[in-house]
Amino acid sequence: MAQVPQRFFDALAVRTWCGLSLRALGRAREEIDAINVYPVADGDTGTNLYLTVESAAAAVEAVFAAHELDGAARDAGGGTLDADGGPSLADAVGAMAHGALIGARGNSGTILAQLLRGMAQVLAERGDSAHTEGPGLRLALRHAATSARQAVAHPVEGTVLTVASAAADAADGAEGDCAEVARAAYEGARAALVATPGQLPVLERAGVVDAGGHGLVTVLAALVETFTGRAPGPVAVPHARVEPGGEGPAEARAAGECAEEGEGGPAFEVIYLLEAEDAAVARLRQRLDALGDSLVVVGGDGLWNVHVHVDDAGAAVEAGVEAGRPYRIRITHFGQGDAHTTGTERPPRERAQRAVVAVVPGEGLAALYTEAGATTLLARPGEPPASGELVQAVRRAHAREVVLLPNDADLRHTAAAAAEQARTEGVRVALIPTRSAVQGIAALAVHEPGRRFDEDVVAMTSAAGATRHAEVTVAERQSWTTAGICQAGDVLGLIDGDVAVIGADVSEVAATVLDRMLSAGGELVTLVLGDEAPQALADGLEARVREAYLAVDTVVYRGGRQGALLLVGVE
Fold first, then answer.
1. Residue 283: helix, strand or coil by DSSP?
2. Secondary structure of 539-562 in the HEC alphabet?
3. In this predicted structure, which of 22-26, 216-220, 253-257 has the lowest mean pLDDT?
4. What stretch of H or E contains 486?
5. Helices and strands (H and E) in the chain: how many
6. How high is the pLDDT of residue 166?
7. I need a labelling partner for 559 at 20 to 30 A (CA). Which of 84, 138, 346, 489 fits?
8. Measuring CA to CA, which residue among 232, 168, 231, 222 is closest to residue 13?
9. Buried b (16+ CB within 10 A) or exposed e, 491-508
10. What are the angstrom distances between the C-alpha of 500 and each of 120, 481, 493?
């Protein structure tokens, strides 16, 4: 089915481009993974690019969802509106760049995030403008290529950087509208991609093109489809040359891994998000450059994505701690997939019969769930996990049967997509639609791995469904709510997802929420305190339950950086 073409590069074009790119990378992911031999032959470039774009697309969708509210709610959201009442180009490209930055995976994904950020910097300069045309797109592609090259400590030709530069060069020579510029960029990138084996010996030996460059050409093909309504067709790349007794990509990867081990190549890939000032990041680049290679640091305005290959993963993380606040730290041992495995050969681990996989909002809850036997995926406030991350968590659980607890109503579709993917890999998955971590705690409390899978799922679902949930948080901006208009700084009490109480005092709002929940009865109250909530808050609520509600028990946990000041569950 042909795509309806966009005349200009506006917010809708950004949304369309993200969606088309995601679908195109989904189709090409396995092919790109299969030709991944540089900088490390770990066979995941296609997957990393897909996850990066998935995060970008989700951020853009969130901007559009916010602007689909009524006029007063949109005004309260603080975004700039275009003439049609939707998000402006600056809003959309800013969201796209931020989503890619926080969701970037691997070397190529991190570089793609910087390419999108470079485009956004140019397009956002148009302020309240609803769209840009061909000249603006040309400038954006040029700045994207330049900023991506600057983000890499030691640029190498024959990689995605070369392909990005070729795309910008071709776009510079294009006249006309966005469709003409996009088509020229795509053709220039495709020609550069085909030439990459002649620039990197490792690609020539394997008989493949650069995997990251292949991914970028796929994304540019989606840009052409955005403006023309039709995709330019599959990316035509050379197939691996397999001589009699020779090597194809898989054999080349194996040979490359052996060579890297023999030559003492870095053992770990370290990636983290970092909150830090520009001066501290400049010092961090120097330190990480001395520790390893494949260094890419992208971002700005206080938030960065750091990627490096090192032998001393601890030192790379420590350098981040000295520069600012690193989080969402991922450490991968090349060839083993787990930073905590040893270098000795071990037989494949036997699959467990059943496991629980849960998304949790804070470190304290993650420890609690892990202690109860669950495999956890930490979701930072404002950073929901992508479906690919949930699939990876299911794989990490290494079980034949998995019970998935998303613990967030907004993750319902993401979790469903992850469950469907896991089922195609032979895992039996049951999704329990938990909307809060306290519902997940209730479900986990009745989990019995020894009983039949269906019976266990029914019991866990019943326990979660019988648990009312609430939270106490602070409003970030003025907004319409089901309880009236709130102002920035107001304390909000939400019951079962809806704002029920607006007040100025945390203790008073929490007490009112608890009373309303217990008015319908209950036997157990679960309180989960966030980092910023004082212990006195829990002490006061416990005392209130003891004095006013006989035969009701209370348990208190520390949740860590969970976003809300307090989570409440009543069973």
1. helix
2. HHHHHHHHHHCCCCEEEEEEEECC
3. 253-257
4. strand 484-486
5. 20, 18
6. 95
7. 489
8. 222
9. bbbbbeeebbbbbeebbe
10. 39, 9, 6
C-alpha 453 chain-centroid distance: 30
Summarised one tens digit per residue, pLDDT across range 300-332 is: 888 999 999 988 888 888 888 899 988 877 777
How far is it, in rounded angstroms, from Cα 386 to Cα 411? 9
What is the CA 479 to chain-centroid distance, rounded?
27
Q: What angle do CA 515, 520, 524 make, to 5 degrees?
A: 75
Residue 477 CB coordination number (10 Å): 11
pTM of the entire predicted model: 0.62
Average pLDDT, the chain: 83
Residue 77: C-alpha distances to residues 57, 266, 291, 480, 501 (Å): 19, 45, 43, 10, 20
Q: For residues 423 and 204, what is the distance between their CA atoms, to the nearest angstrom?
A: 37
Q: Which of 500, 563, 490, 501 is nearest to 529 (CA)?
A: 563
Are the C-beta atoms of residues 357 and 387 closer than 8 Å to each other?
A: no
- 325 residue type, one letter: R
DSSP symbol at 40: -
Which token pair is 345?
Answer: 């050969």
Between the two ends of the chain, the Cα-to-Cα distance in Å is 50
Three state DSSP letters for 156-199: CCCCHHHHHHHHHHHHHCCCCCHHHHHHHHHHHHHHHHHHHHHC
Give tens-digit pLDDT for 115-144. Answer: 999 999 998 876 456 678 888 899 999 999
Residue 355 and residue 350: Cα distance in Å, rounded?
13
Contact 418, 394 (CB under 8 A): yes
